[in-house]
Amino acid sequence: MSQPELMRGSQGYRLSDAAKEQAAHTLMDPATRPSNVVGFGQGVKWTHGEPTGEPALLVFVSQKLPPTMLREQDLLPRRMDDGTTVDVVRVGHVVAERLMGSPQAVSAPAAQFMGAPAPAIPRGDGAPADTGVQVLTRRLRPCPSGFSIGNVQVTAGTMGSVVYDFLPGATIDPPAPGLGIPSRFYVLSNNHVLADSNRAPVGSAIVQPGRFDGGVDPQDRIAVLSRFIPIDLTPAIPLTSHNNIVDAAIGEVQFQEATRETYFNGAPRGWRRKANVSVGDLVKKTGRTTNLTVGRIIAVDATIDVSYGFGIGRFRDQIVTTAMSAGGDSGSLVTSLDNVAMGLLFAGSVQVTIVNHIEHVRSLLRVEIAETLA
Question: Which residue of 8, 150, 154, 221 is surrounded by the most CB atoms within 10 Å?
């Protein structure tokens, strides 16, 4: 399906505030939430496995069941009150995608990354594609983005890029770079990769490769945790009170120890504002487990619940793509095919991948990932 076909009738379309408010209340409130619903987003209606181009509110469910198997209160409307079409999309069990288990006690899902084939990533036509065993787990200095990394308290994720603090004069809205010489550089990845989901102390060691891949401290230390955006998680904070829009953290690194040149893909030549990220856009990433993958954006402005094992985090304003990741790919930088940074990968399932907007990552961490808008 070409992008013009996918986008037919949906160019420039945005869900109305009324539709988003109704969806948040009826679909995500625990008191009224239908079973199996894990989120919603803006996309296009799909029929017989093909996108029609008709703008729609996509309702994400863990499994798709025929109406005859659902309780009356679990039936979804065909349209929202403002007339927006509703379509149901199966996304499976969405989890934060660092590796689970440890080298000493490997869980069943993680064991497949110890030499057995990685999970098959569905192609755009729905058929599986064998991703092979070419994981990016070597120790490298300087380390290219895309390789295994992690806090010493976690297993392993992916180094997304190298960034630096805003220079004097840098702005967020409208965004503009500052002037001067960066005084510090940082590796960029997810909170759950570099900060152990809020639990690692600032100053703790980050190793490359990650501990799951043999990294030890201090021999393989590449950075120290500098700052992270805290994640609201249950049961400590009720889902309806969550305000998550990024899963992101940085660790200070010496300039010569790492590079924002993404392995096989090249350095980001700029970054894209969230308003210019659209359903149908083709994207790519290089990650620790599934190396190079290409996907397509199927929804934006998405609200979705993500499992962290010991709690659930509700994230809003997310990008949803076709499946292009697996455990260990968390932290990968997601770009356009011509290397414009668009987002930071942090979660997924067999069916989809979930990505933070790079604009949010930049503004909340106050770091520069590329000097130009593109």
Answer: 150
Give pLDDT, residue 20: 87
Q: Rounded CA gap, 102 and 193, in Å?
A: 14
Task: Count CA within 13 A, CB hemisphere, residue 33.
Answer: 18
In whole angstroms, what is the distance from residue 172 CA to residue 249 CA? 18
Nearest residue to 353 (alpha-carbon basis) of 374, 332, 337: 332
Q: What is the pLDDT of residue 15?
A: 80
Residues in Cβ contact with 331 at an 8 Å cutoff, skipping those fewer than 6 apart: 98, 149, 157, 158, 159, 160, 188, 189, 190, 193, 194, 287, 344, 345, 346
Sign, CA dihedral 34-37-42-46, equals negative
Return d(Cα 168, Cα 110) in angstroms, integer. Answer: 44
Note the Cα 197 to chain centre separation in Å. Answer: 15
What pLDDT is attached to residue 74?
Answer: 76
C-alpha separations of 253 from 6, 183, 186, 256, 289 in Å: 42, 11, 5, 8, 23
Q: What is the total count of domains within the chain?
A: 2
How far is residue 46's CA from residue 248's CA, in Å, rounded to a whole number? 32
Same domain, 65 and 165: no
Strand 171-172 to strand 161-165: parallel, antiparallel, or no bridges (unpaired)? Answer: unpaired
pTM recorded for the entire structure:
0.91
Residue 220's CB is within 10 A of a number of other CB atoms, namely 20
pLDDT-flagged residues of the chain (< 70): 1-12, 68, 101-133
> For residue 150, which of 53, 217, 86, 85 has the smallest C-alpha distance?
217
CATH number at residue 327: 2.40.10.120
* Residue 310 is assigned to a structural domain of this protein: no
- The pLDDT, as a whole number, for residue 75 is 80
Are 281 and 295 spatial neighbours (Cβ–Cβ below 8 Å)? no
Residue 49 is encoded by which pair of tokens?
């496995």
The rounded radius of gyration (Å) of the Cα atoms in the chain is 20
The pLDDT score that the predictor gives to residue 34 is 87
Q: What's at 222, amino acid-wise?
A: I
Show the domain range for 20.
Answer: 3-90
Task: Identify the CA nearest to 217 among candidates 135, 164, 153.
Answer: 153
Pairing of strands 352-357, 312-322: antiparallel
Tell me, yes or no, whether 299 lies in a domain.
Answer: no
pLDDT at residue 267 in the model: 97
